[in-house]
Amino acid sequence: MGIEKTTNPNKTVVTAVGDPAGGKRKRSRAACLVVIYGEDLGRRIPLGNQKLVVGRSSRTDVQIDQESVSRNHCEIRPVERGYEIEDLRSTNGTYVNDELVERLELRDGDQLKIGRTILKFIVGGNIEAQYHEEIYRLMTVDGLTQVHNKRYFDETLDKELSRARRYDRVFSLILFDIDHFKQVNDEYGHLAGDAVLRHIGLLVRGHVRRDDVVARTGGEEFGIITPEIGAQGAIELAEKIRALIESRVFEFEGTPIPVTISLGVAQWSASLASGQALVAAADEKLYEAKRNGRNRVVGPAS
Q1: 268 burial via Cβ count (<10 Å: 0-12, 13-18, 19+)
Q2: Phi-psi category of residue 89: left, alpha or beta, with phi > 0 → left and psi -120 to 50 → alpha
Q3: What is the pTM of this model?
Q4: Phi/psi of residue 230, each to 5°?
Q5: Catalytic pick from 75, 134, 160, 220?
Q6: CB atoms near residue 252 (< 10 Å)
Q7: Among 106, 111, 78, which Cα is nearest to 95's?
Q8: Is 4 one of the annotated active-site residues of the chain?
Q9: How far is 55 from 68, CA to CA, in rounded Å?
C-alpha cells in the first residue's frame, strides 16, 4: 500500500493511493495508546477492532476533559494496514509528532497530542513488555519536553555530589527558566506555551555533552548538571544556550513567538552541605539575572 502526502503550511493529509506490489498487509491487533503527558499519566488504552472517538464529551470513548479539546476531537480507527487517526474538525487541531494532521496512518512510537495531553502509540508482538518499558521510561523522562524529569534530576544531583566528595571532583549546576512565560501562555495560549517548552527541551538536549544531565525541574524551569566542569566552563555553556534560544525563531501554527531565557550558575564546593544548597545557590544567581533585566547569565564572579 503506497502513501500520498499532501502538505500545506499548517496541515498534513496522508491518504492511501494503492499497493504497488498488489499485496495486502495484515493489521496487527496488538496495539495501545499510553498517556505520557497530562492527567492519568501511564494510562493504557487498548486498541481493537472498533473505532475510538477522543474528545471532551463524556459520550466519547476516550474522554480528555480540557478546554483545549473539542467535544469530538479526533477518531482512531482500525484499517487494513493498522490504525489511522483523523481529526474531526477540532478547534485546536490534532498533532502527531508535533505536526498538525487531518488524517494519518499511525506508526509504532508516534506521539499524539490532543489538547495538552500526549499519548504514545505502541504496536508490536509484545505489547505488555513494551508498555512496561514505557512506564519505566516515564519514571525518568518528562513526557512533554523529552528531557529528564525532576525525580531523575534530584537523584542524579545526589549521586554527583557524593562522587564529588569521594573523589574530590568538580561539577556545576545551571538553572534557567523562560522569561515572561506567563505572557506567552496568556497571549498565544497554553498549547503554544507547551510547544515552546518542547522545542527548548529539544534544542538544549542537542547542545550539551553526553555526560551532562538536562531536566525539566518545574513548569518553565530547567536544570543542567555538568560533571567535571567548573563555574567558568558552565558559564560559557550557559551563554551558548542563552544565545541559541534568543536567536531561534519559535513558531506555533505559523505565528512567531519571541523567547528568551535567564540562567544562573553555581559550582559545588565543600562549603555546600547538600544538593539542595547547590540548587539554592544557582537559583539565587538565576533571580539575579532576572532582576538585572533577564536574557542573561549570572554565575560566580560574572
Answers
A1: buried
A2: left
A3: 0.87
A4: -80, -175
A5: 220
A6: 17
A7: 111
A8: no
A9: 10
